[in-house]
Every structure is written in C-alpha cells, then in structure tokens.
5-methylthioadenosine/S-adenosylhomocysteine deaminase
Amino acid sequence: MTQERDNKPRRCDLLVRADAIVTQDGERRVLTDAAVAVTDGLVAEVGDYANLAAAYEPEQTLDLSGKMLLPGLVNGHTHLPMTLQRGLADDLPLMEWLQNHIWPVEAKLNETLLASGAKLGCAELIRTGCTTFLNGYFHEQITGQAVSDCGLRAVLGEGFFAFPSPFFATAEDCWNTVRALDERYRDHPRLRSAVTPHAVYTVEPDQLAESFELAESLDIPWQTHLAESPMETALCLEKHGMRPVEILRSLNLLSPRTTLHHCVDVTDEEIALLADRGVNVVHNPASNLKLCSGLSPVQKLLDAGVNVGLGTDGAASNNQLNMFRDMGLAALVGKVSHGDASAVSAQTALDMATRNSARCLGWPELGRIEAGCPADMCALDLASANLMPMFNPVSHAVYAATGLEVCMTMTAGEVLYLYGDFRTLDMTTLREEATECAKWARCAAGRGKNTK
C-alpha cells in the first residue's frame, strides 16, 4: 500500500516537453528529450521526459518537440515607451541625439501615448522571448498597467533629472511618486520598483544621495546611467572635477543595491572599485555602437568579478528590443574590444542575458529553469534553417538565432505567445495605435502636421 502511494503520479499544472532544454542552472546543464513540470507558476522539476511523464499527471501538456527551451530572457536596461521614437533620430552622437531630438519630443508625451508605447514594447519583448525587464521612464504606472495586463514581469523606475524638471517641481514630489509606485506594486506578483536618477551629469549630487537613501529605506534597487561615453566624462570633469565613477564613490553610492548602465568609459582602477563594492553593471552593446559611445570593457569587468547583465536600452537608441541580437553583439564586440576570440563566450553572453541580468534587477531566482524558480521560459523552433544542424544549443542561441525563431514565450507558467498567437495582446488594435503614434511623433519632432 505504501509503495503504491509513493509511485502514484504527482499532480502538476503543466508538463512542457522539448528536444533540448538549456536550463541555465548552477551546473549550466543542457538536457535532451527533456521536460519541465510546472505547478503554481513555479518549476516543480526539470529532467528526462520519460521520467517526468511517468512521475507527473499534468492538467495540461505542451509538446515542443523540435524546439529548444530556454529561460525567459531578462532585459537589464530599457525605456519601454521609447518605442514611440524608434527611428525618429538616427546616426547621431549621444548628446546631440538626447538634447536636440529625444528630450524635446519626450516633453510632449502624455499618458495615452505612453500606454501605446508600453504595449508596443511588451509585444516586442514577448515576441523575442524576453519575460522580464528593468525599466526607467516617466509615469511608470502606465507601463506597469501594460505589463500587468500582458503577463510580463518588470522592475519599474520613475526617471528624474535635476529639480525642477518638466515632470517634478521638487525633489519631494519625485520621492512621493517613487513611494507611491513602490506601494502600488509591493504585493504584485510580477511588478517591482526601483529608484532611477537619470545620470550624474543631469542630477545634482545631493539629489543623487537623497535618492539612494530612499532606495535603502524602501529596500529596492537603485539604477542610473553611468560612464556612457567619453563626452559624459568630460562633462563631469568640467562640472564636478571628478569622473563619473568617482562622483558615486564620493557619495557612497556604490553597493550591491546599485545597477549602473553602460560603463563604457571606465578605467582599470574604477573596474576594481566596482568589483570591490559589489556593484552591478548592465552592458548595452547595440545602443553603445549606434550612438558611437564606445566599447565597454566587458571581459575586464567580468574578470574582476563584476556582475554584468545585458540590456537593449530604449528602442530609440537601439531600434530593437531584441535580446537575442544584443546577446550576439555582446559576444562579438567583446572579442574585438578585448583582442581575444575567447572573450565574452557564448555561455557568458547567455549568462548575461539571463542569470546576471536577474541579479541586476534584484530578482536572482529568474533567468534559469530550475526547481523552485518561476516558470518563465521561451522556445526556439529548431526547424529554422539558420538553426540546422545543431551541435551546441548555447552557441546557436547566441550566434545563430535572430529572436524571430521564438515560437513560445511563457511567464509564471502562462503562455503569452505561441506560434504567432499573442494571447494577452490585441495586435490589430495595437497596430492601429502605432499608426496614430507615428503621426504624433512626426508632429512632435516638427516634421509634419498632427492629424489626430
């Protein structure tokens, strides 16, 4: 009787089968003809398909034969509603792009436009296998609503500049907004908050320090752009007599709570300091290249022990929110930057886009397919010509995949996208909204009349 009870199949909500599963667990196991059992939005077990099929009695099954299963990718840095400015200002250096093209248009945004931009961003992330992102923008509750509705995960940061600004008259106005955002999402299963000053050259030192104190009091991440280009360094030296990293060091803002975006113009001594303080860095290769900001010394950061995640940045400076493209670029550019073909390996790039980015978000249980972790996954169709033949699944995910081979995206065990079907978004309505947003953007940029 006892033996019979022990052998009785266990219940699970979902059993997913795939030809290959890149687990990204502690051992970086890659399993063949394998399966994942999902219960209550979490991975119950991952292993050989035959064993799990015998051990579990699922409510539903998802047969992904001929597919490769990966953890949902984690975008460590983006500005989601900037999909509205995709292609609006190309082929320009960072400061000219920001000051003359992006900031003037952003000043004219409203909540309706931000909602459309956020939904467009969610659709692109879902389509390319990304299940979680770290955001920084304005009126973040709007992006939060889009994320909540479509089933993704996000850490949301209300962006701010030196006060007064177009969005906040005083620092206290901003801190109250951050507190309200944190309270709104404190108990949400898929949404969290962060404190998000724009950069050391656009926010005063005392305000940076106050914002960090706020992050500590709320026990949430603190993120900012830093050392994005040599021009930023020159501005900091002129304004404060210090390089960007030194400014944060002088204010005691370097800690494991800190996530820095870009870190292109950093010295060996600064890298050692970031490693010593446990700071997280997010690499943004496509954006850095497009704005000609420079090449981040990623392998040096990794070798020093810095946790380096991966992000797309906004669609205005990348033109895509496709983490597969940034994975490939991170590996390729990393080799050239370091002068070593073995630098930023395929496995390293995949780690950056999954486990490492999850740490940057303060959400370390993400970015892996492992028992007890959230069931966030995506699948690549191995029938795609560019993925045949397959010798090494990790190599294919980084060097061969484009992101458009994604045929399934799942968060917390819920399928958001399957074989062209967006299950949580109305793409027909969204396309119509995108058309109207394009008219607005042209008008906002002074390139035509708004016909809305």
